[in-house]
Structures
1.
Amino acid sequence: MSTLVFGHKNPDTDSVCAAIALADLKKKLGEDVVPAAQGELNPESKFVLDKFGVDAPAVVTSYAGKDVYLVDHSDLAQSPDDLSDANIMGIIDHHKLGDVTTGQPLECWIWPVGCTCTVISSMYNYFDIEIPKDIAGIMLCAILSDTVIFKSATCTDADKKICAQLSEICGESDLDALGIEMFKVKSAVDGTPVRELVLRDYKDFDMSGNGVGCGQLELVDLSIVDGIKADLEKDIRDLKAEKGHHTVLLMLTDIMKEGTELLVASDDETVVEKAFGAAPVDGKVWLPGIMSRKKQIIPDLEKVFG
Ligand code: MG
Ligand code: MG
Ligand code: MG
């Protein structure tokens, strides 16, 4: 039986591309590893795989009894519900260490960089395995996506250095143009149900016993969502009630203006003011310079709940 490698729930481009790349690397190192995804691919990920002619991983939701590698997460809330019945062989990630634990020693590559694909590219280099052209292309896109074309606070010199190597391999030299092309696909909201937009890049967190959800839409221009903002606000209130959460947030991030309009549904809106120093008005607040959920939203919120 093949070992499966998969990223977090509501897979993003890094989760998908990191799973594909790690499976390729592991195969070349003599392991039988197949990529998987915990859910359907988003439009950006489909665009990226299409562009470089790479097959999408199978959607797998049950992992009991399987050997697995985790990429792009180590939080139980973002893992399959039956992960405790799987055998975790390793974790490759770039988030804070989560609450996943193992019964056996594991291979662990968790680095404070902007993207899991930066770690996996470095693993290819470490094992002296040539990165295939198509894999280089999708990993390059994953890094541009996760680092918001190098603008995010999560971006490091290691990410930029790996991107230079990947762009040489795959022949994409204009990284800004490639990034904008990708974010335009990501920004498209027409015809997409509101709930799907809220959940497209959404994560649940447990903050000292309080359920907190946070979604993010990264947009080339905030005006794209003008016509549906009221529906988005209503939907996060509904989602909060359905989940019994303390707070559900939706980050509307303008990648060109480099800031985020935060939509807030909360039992206590003052948590937002305490965390970010600005009070929501009518359930909304503009946060200049804020682009990263992982680095600029979640840690400050956790402190308030702590
Ligand atoms: Mg991710
Ligand atoms: Mg990532
Ligand atoms: Mg992201």
2.
Amino acid sequence: MNEIRIFSPATVANVSCGFDVLGFCLDNIGDEMVIRKTSKKGIHITKIEGYELPFEAEKNVAGVSALALIEDAQPDCGFEIEIYKHIKPGSGVGSSSASAVGSVFGINELLGKPYNKTELTNFAMKGEALASQSEHADNIAPAIFGGFTLVKTVSPLEIIQLPTPHNLVAVIIHPQIEIKTADARALLPKEIPLQDAITQWSNVGSLIHALHTSDYELLSKSLIDVVVEPYRSQLIPHFQSVRAAALNHGALGCGISGSGPSIFSLCHGEAVAQKVVEAITNIYAKTDIPFEIYKSEINTEGIKIL
Ligand code: HSE
């Protein structure tokens, strides 16, 4: 095999209470990439469609993660990368992760899969760090492993795959404003009150239990973020109205997707999700902010070959 085309999915990081550790994978939103073996050594980005991004491998997240992999693997060939970007950079649904993951997944396949998923996550984190100035894996891990994931530690990297309850549907609204992850991280306090920490780790624990037991009521009570959301929600117009509308129309929970501006809701079943789509659409349709809205099942497979 000398060439493959892949689908690299969008993801929702943090999942309210799990800042930098929890994430889940989306189904029908993602980038496509073509990776090709070449006799010319190195990483060469030959095509980028959708959004303007740098072609120099050292300045492109897909290039940086690919360079990290080939530095380790030392293959006797090089690779060309074509990126068909559908996820807008700075949207909050793992745009940089999709690029970072796509290149390392594709190259690994073409090399005969010398690396496991955790090792691929490690290489992809180098690309993510270029975009956000921080090596976190809460978008990368669900893109590679699929479903819900917990990043137990980044050093050494340890990823725990979590179960996905049946019939869970995500609704994502993406207001067309850009929030850079680095800026949204700079906003956060370095220390938090003990009482907030207690609430947050209680919610993380109960959320994990809810995923294991398919307890939708407990899931709903756990999707609360008292640490990060109070700061970042101020950057997202109409966040509180969207959250209230989603919860009033049956969403189990609603919070900021990654570092925003996208807002995710988790719903039990397609019918509830459709009502949430309509309720949220009504709020943003009354504003002059352009937006996109998606409904997606949880993608339990993760990145895949097309
Ligand atoms: N955990 C990260 C953050 C996800 O919220 O900053 C965005 O890359």
